[in-house]
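Notebook entry, structure prediction.
Reason for the run: the old model in the group folder had no record of what sequence produced it. Starting over properly, with the input documented here first.
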Amino acid sequence: MTNDRRLRTVDLARRAGLSTQQIRNYEDAGVLPPADRTEAGYRVFGERHLRALLTYRTLRQGYGPVAATRIMRTVHEGDVPGALALVDGAHAALHAERVSLREASAALEELAREEPGPPPRSAGLRIGEVAALIGVRTSALRVWEAAGLLAPRREQGTGYRVFGAADVRDARLVHTLRGAHYLFEQIRPVLDGLRREGGSEALRTALGARERALTARTRAMLAGAGALDAYLGDGRTG
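New structure, fully documented this time:
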């Protein structure tokens, strides 16, 4: 034990507002550095363990409990570069999510600039009619369907494709975004969002809420990274 004040498991639990079992679980998981033991086998903690616990709590707010545990465990295993690589990976994943969100928002704006065109008949349109309506070949519609972007129903008996209003909207959106050089992988989340939210305005609202959530998470991750840096800098992380 260093010059830290000696803390029993119950002392650390009280200061952290946790149960003694949670403290033991955190040590076993590597969130805390290994505790010293008395001759009787009781754990003895110190201020560094409290600092580790507070660091973990701050990390958890932005990175989530699984990633925060991995980061702290890797630090306490003596692999600081490995722990920082986990931090880098989490930030890279968040950046990719933000890029995808912005692409979806831009795709909606592309759609908003499109002329809506006449609504399809209540009975639906055949593939050739949809192709003529939006200005593509029928083969393009078949490719988009094979890629999972379109899902028109099939007419009983004949098996012909029948495009309803939502199918025509989806085909128009795919055509617009393909013209703007969007890949299928970029188009699919926009279509999924439209179907889930029920329309472009609802999807726009959902995307706005998601962007605010990402901003909050980014700030929480920055706070967690700062706490980790301070913990690493105190020179007693092992």
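Summary: The chain has a mean pLDDT of 87.
The old model has been moved to the deprecated folder.
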